[in-house]
Amino acid sequence: MTSSTPRAVVIYSGGMDSYTVLHRARREGYEIHALSFNYGQRHARELDTAKQVCEQLGIAHQIVDIRAIHGLIDSSALTDASQALPGGDYDADNLSATVVPNRNMILLSLAIAQAVNIGADRVFYGAHGGDHVLYPDCRPEFVEKMNDVAAIANFSPVTIEAPYLHKGKHEILADGLAMGLDYANTWTCYLGETLACGECGSCRERLAAFAHHGLSDPLGYSPQRPEAAASEQPEAVASQRPGTDAEAAADSSEGRRDV
Question: Looking at the predicted structure, is the pLDDT value of residue 229 above 60?
């Protein structure tokens, strides 16, 4: 890429949403600097997945170790392995234990710092409409206020982009499928086991998104989980996807942009 190519920082967890955001920003013509964060979450499966994807795509990627703050945010079931992870669909009553205190404000602040440091004027992250019921730091009001702060916190203003802020999981998936993305290159489950559990809220939301499109999830799920039935034929996804990651990368190099 040339020096005139605009730069953007993408907060990239390795999950389904940030994976789609990463490719969307890439197709919009940005030189991507992906940031992943190790804040003491229960497992590193997503981080390993993120590293592999960025290596395959040749995207600059940094895993930032902020485990020193773990004691400040360890009240969540996602950061305290002694707590049982709640199951069921996303709902404030049964998944409030998965809220990590101030997580997105912390991660966005660090991403904004890197953006200023490398001369980028955009930070992307994967907040989406399905998160609004549970996570305050994924709501439009939060993004609006963080954008206000990002505009004045440094001499160089930065804009926070959350392209799926008003869209649901199935709409994110639709966008990714249209880009030819392979969601086998993501990890969503709250657990870091060999197979996804199919029972946690994150798995259930993901499975519902694939079911909405009449597709099978390419991830493997534990055969003991009833929700795993939706993922027993991953080949079906490949046959129904309009393209591949390689084709999406080629499209990006040809200068195609989303609108």
Answer: no
Structure confidence at residue 85 as a pLDDT band (50, 70, 90): low
Tokens of 110: 């660090």
pLDDT at 46: 94
CA separation, residue 120 to residues 13, 74, 158, 208 (Å): 20, 32, 8, 36
User: Which distant-in-sequence residues (6+ apart) come within 8 Å of 229 by Cβ?
Assistant: none
Contact in structure between 32 and 5 (CB atoms under 8 Å): no
Give the DSSP H/E element, type plus range, for residue 56.
helix 45-57
CB < 8 Å & 24+ apart, contacts of 188-192: 188/15, 188/16, 188/219, 189/45, 190/42, 190/77, 190/78, 190/85, 190/98, 191/42, 191/43, 191/85, 192/42, 192/43, 192/44, 192/45
Question: Do 73 and 101 touch, CB atoms closer than 8 A?
Answer: yes
What is the C-alpha radius of gyration for the chain, rounded to an integer number of angstroms?
18
Strand-pair partners of 8: 32, 122
Please state, in angstroms and rounded to a whole number, the distance separating the CA atoms of residues 195 and 205: 16
pLDDT of 253 strictly over 80: no
Q: Which residues does residue 206 pair with via DSSP β-bridges, in sequence order?
A: none
- The pLDDT of 176-198, averaged and rounded, is 94
pLDDT at 80: 58
pLDDT at position 125, please?
96
- Closest among 169, 98, 108, 162 to 135, alpha carbons compared: 98
- In angstroms, the CA 179 to CA 230 distance is 22
pTM for this one?
0.82
CB atoms within 10 A of CB 220: 15
